[in-house]
Amino acid sequence: MLIFSLIWTLSVLLTEIHSWGFKNGIFHNSIWLEQAAGVYHRESRKGRYQLTYKEAKAVCKYEGGTLATYDQLEAARQIGFHVCAAGWFDKGRVGYPIVKAGANCGFGKVGIIDYGYRLNKSERWDVYCYNPNSKECGGVLTEQQKIIQSPGFPEEYQDDQICYWHIRVRLGQRIRINFLEFDVEDDTDCLADYLEVYDSYDDVSGFAGRFCGDYLPEDMISTGNVMTLKFLSDASVTAGGFQLQYSAVNASLFPQNLQTGPPLIT
Ligand SMILES: *[C@@H]1O[C@H](CO)[C@@H](O)[C@H](O)[C@H]1NC(C)=O
Ligand SMILES: *[C@@H]1O[C@H](CO)[C@@H](O)[C@H](O)[C@H]1NC(C)=O
């Protein structure tokens, strides 16, 4: 029964996420990270609604950010930040930003759905962080071309890293990823340390591959003008790390139905 209701809840959440559409060529989703707003949503590695207030603060701090304030969350919402998941924000408040009214999320309302200041800081929610600047481990990248490296590269990366790189190039462009060096702790299914590639602006939809070991992955080309890379290392064993280059390419040079040429992510 519990499993069933969990699956039901998840499917409602996913349906809600996927029912939302495109704006300026970007799919609105649980990690809609806009440099102008700098606000983003995170959940625990263990999944949804697992973070106490203290843990939530640590998640933001880890990525060089802080808990978002109500005003920052609202500013982000006004440019389209829409997430169907309650999270901690500044001063122990909990809520989530809704742009489009929906039956399954936000009680049909639009705005910050505010659960107020929680007296019990041991309650578990997701989190809304604020970080207007990208840092070495992850960030928002809008340049036409850039090298992305595991933290500390060419030194070995550390344990317990989690980095998200959200790449966005111009509308009508696509992103080509070219792996230069790759050495990530190897294990079957890459459950310990890994680099994941998503053909979208978040790590929810468009999963395109998970990589570990020391085999250099093939080049990849996005289908749209956004892409997300996620690097995660666990609490033991590290390795040399990775280095890759992304570059914006003219989409018309890589039509979707091209049979030859670089592999397409579908
Ligand atoms: C606070 O929340 C936690 C997690 O939901 C719960 O286990 C605990 O009993 C709550 N404490 C109080 C005093 O309500
Ligand atoms: C992209 O390709 C189209 C069609 O070949 C061309 O008209 C356009 O100028 C190109 N844009 C860039 C930035 O190269």
TrEMBL record:
<feature type="domain" description="Link">
    <location>
        <begin position="38"/>
        <end position="131"/>
    </location>
</feature>
<dbReference type="InterPro" id="IPR016186">
    <property type="entry name" value="C-type_lectin-like/link_sf"/>
</dbReference>
<dbReference type="InterPro" id="IPR000859">
    <property type="entry name" value="CUB_dom"/>
</dbReference>
<keyword id="KW-0378">Hydrolase</keyword>
<feature type="disulfide bond">
    <location>
        <begin position="60"/>
        <end position="129"/>
    </location>
</feature>
<keyword id="KW-0130">Cell adhesion</keyword>
<feature type="signal peptide">
    <location>
        <begin position="1"/>
        <end position="19"/>
    </location>
</feature>
<dbReference type="GO" id="GO:0005540">
    <property type="term" value="F:hyaluronic acid binding"/>
</dbReference>
<feature type="domain" description="CUB">
    <location>
        <begin position="137"/>
        <end position="249"/>
    </location>
</feature>
<dbReference type="Pfam" id="PF00193">
    <property type="entry name" value="Xlink"/>
</dbReference>
<dbReference type="GO" id="GO:0016787">
    <property type="term" value="F:hydrolase activity"/>
</dbReference>
<keyword id="KW-0732">Signal</keyword>
<dbReference type="GO" id="GO:0005615">
    <property type="term" value="C:extracellular space"/>
</dbReference>
<dbReference type="InterPro" id="IPR035914">
    <property type="entry name" value="Sperma_CUB_dom_sf"/>
</dbReference>
<protein>
    <recommendedName>
        <fullName>Tumor necrosis factor-inducible gene 6 protein</fullName>
    </recommendedName>
</protein>
<feature type="disulfide bond">
    <location>
        <begin position="84"/>
        <end position="105"/>
    </location>
</feature>
<dbReference type="GO" id="GO:0050728">
    <property type="term" value="P:negative regulation of inflammatory response"/>
</dbReference>
<dbReference type="InterPro" id="IPR052129">
    <property type="entry name" value="Spermadhesin-Link_domain"/>
</dbReference>
<dbReference type="Pfam" id="PF00431">
    <property type="entry name" value="CUB"/>
</dbReference>
<comment type="subunit">
    <text>Interacts (via Link domain) with inter-alpha-inhibitor (I-alpha-I) component bikunin. Interacts with ITIH2/HC2; this interaction is required for transesterification of the HC to hyaluronan. Interacts (via Link and CUB domains) with ITIH1. Chondroitin sulfate may be required for the stability of the complex. Interacts (via Link domain) with various C-X-C and C-C chemokines including PF4, CXCL8, CXCL11, CXCL12, CCL2, CCL7, CCL19, CCL21, and CCL27; this interaction interferes with chemokine binding to glycosaminoglycans.</text>
</comment>
<dbReference type="InterPro" id="IPR016187">
    <property type="entry name" value="CTDL_fold"/>
</dbReference>
<dbReference type="InterPro" id="IPR000538">
    <property type="entry name" value="Link_dom"/>
</dbReference>
<dbReference type="GO" id="GO:0007155">
    <property type="term" value="P:cell adhesion"/>
</dbReference>
<keyword id="KW-1015">Disulfide bond</keyword>
